[in-house]
Amino acid sequence: MTSPAPAHRTRRTAGGFGPREGRRPAHRRLIPAVLAAALTAVVVAPPAGAVPPLDVDSQLVDEVGVLDEAVVTAAQEELEQAAGVQLYVVYVDDFSGAEGDEWSIASAERSGIGSDDVLLAVAVEDRKYGLAVPNALGLSATAQSQIRRTALEPELSADDWSGAVVATADALGAALTGAAPAPGPAPGTDGTGTTTPAATSSGGGGLTWLLLGAVAVGAFLLFRSFRSRSRTSDQRPTGPGAPPPPVDLDTLNTRASHALVRLDDTLRGSEQELGFAQAQFGVEATRRFTEVLAAAKKDALAAFTLRQRLDDHIPETDDERRTMLTQILQLCERAGTAIEEQTEAFDELRDVQARAPEVLDETEQRAREVAARIPAAAQALEALRRTYPASALASVAGNPEQAEQLLDAARESVEQGRQSVTDGDRAAAVVAARTAENAVEQAVHLLEAVDRAGTELAGASAAIASGIASLGSDLDDAARLAPRDPAVQAAATHARGCVTPRVPRDPGATRSPSCTTCARRRPSSTERWSPLAVRRSRPSAPAPSCATPWDR
């Protein structure tokens, strides 16, 4: 049995839910919409345009790919169990220029949807929707309007496509089962969207009263809609920083089950991969993969244990289930990622094996290029020694010599690899090539450390000078604000000992921080970095005999 013709349904003028951005406030949009709808219902009925309907062959048609199938299907099943009504959901890009209700009604009739079923159609790009509700369900026009305004439109306006279906299904179920009785028919209707004779009587007085009633109804609907939208906006965080809505438990449970299946397949394949790799490259070259695979098996065991706890006869709370399902997903992701990284490393090894002669030649050329940088690094290190003490350069002092040794070892590995290629042992050639590559890279890091040393030491000197100046200002404040506070003065005394200048005063001469004779000397040019040294400057005097090695 097909649905009646479209003329019996209450029509919406636009059948849309507004643009994504730049929408006018609700009270400014609803006033003209309500008045226009009232006047249109009295003056003229909109023509039913010919639109290409869609032959719906299932309860869920998502041509746009914006719906969460599990969430929508669950809402549809719940409505059917509660009210015996099937909700057909159709999401498309546009309605080919047709209005939403016309398109949804035509699609419902062409598809042969039952007289006690509902079709919800949404055009995502057109920002329109249609809700085809047959008269046989007994929902009044006011009840349908309330479902649209309070359940469907707020979710569509927020681009919550799956939420719109869930909210509509819940509202339909409540209205049909009496869980939340909808208001009765509006004056002038018979509860089915058909205008009564009393409402269409001729005469200026009847029309005037009808218009006044429409304005009153519009004001009431405006107030209700404004309150509803305000509550919705308060309850749902919006904006770029708003957290995404939580995933429902059913969807989370499905994801966890799929993740366990994928991880089990990955472990089986990885065991075979490890066997092939050990035969190809040897046990030592595959040791890391062996360790990663063992750790992945432990994660898999923990994940399957959680799954068994969820499936046993002991019930868990919703919060406990959510926590356990989230842990399963995290364990599966960690294990899968680690195995994938090792698989990629084996792919690189196989590439090296296939290109062993070329890789060995490239590594030898790279070693020659790095060796050419060693003399410049040695000269830079010698220049740093003339500026900074040996203790400041201890971490890079031997880098040029160590780099030379590493490059010698790389050259030896290259020769061993070539011999292995000649002997037909590609696996040994791969090991030699990797050893040579690692040696060259270590040499590069050592020389780069020498290049950075000058900049890092200069930056450290400036940072120390800035810190000493700041602490000196704090000491002045302490002396001015709390000169008799024992705790403050004890801390100030300790701080003065920390900031006492410890830089050389003259070339070849240093001083002891505790020597008062040194403290009275005029600071040399190297001491200008310390503001405290400048403040304590005095006329120059001969270098004291208490000079000690530089203490940093």
3D architecture notes:
- It contains 16 helices and 4 strands.
- It is mainly α and 552 residues long.
- The chain folds into 4 domains: 6-235, Diaminopimelate Epimerase, Chain A, domain 1 (Roll); 249-354, no CATH class; 360-468; 500-552, no CATH class.
- The protein has a 4-stranded mixed beta sheet with strand order 1-2-3-4, sandwiched between helices.
- Residues 1-14, 20-51, 181-211, 225-234 and 504-552 have low confidence and may be disordered.
What does the secondary structure layout of this molecule look like, with pairings?
Blueprint: H1 26-43, E1 60-62, H2 69-83, E2 87-92, H3 100-111, E3 118-123, E4 128-132, H4 141-157, H5 161-177, H6 204-235, H7 249-281, H8 287-311, H9 318-354, H10 356-371, H11 374-385, H12 399-422, H13 426-481, H14 486-499, H15 516-519, H16 531-535
Parallel strand pairs: 1-2, 2-3
Antiparallel strand pairs: 3-4
Summarize the amount of helix as a percent range. 55-70%
CATH T-level fold name of the largest domain? Diaminopimelate Epimerase, Chain A, domain 1
State the shape. Answer: extended
CATH class of the largest domain: Alpha Beta
* Quaternary structure of the protein: single chain
Mean of all residue-level pLDDT scores? 74
Strand order of the largest sheet: 1-2-3-4
- What is the CA-CA span between the terminal residues? 96 Å
Summarize the structure.
With 552 residues, the protein is mostly helical. Helices cover 61% and strands 4% of the residues.
Key phrases:
552 residues, four-stranded mixed β-sheet, mainly alpha, extended, disordered C terminus, 4 domains
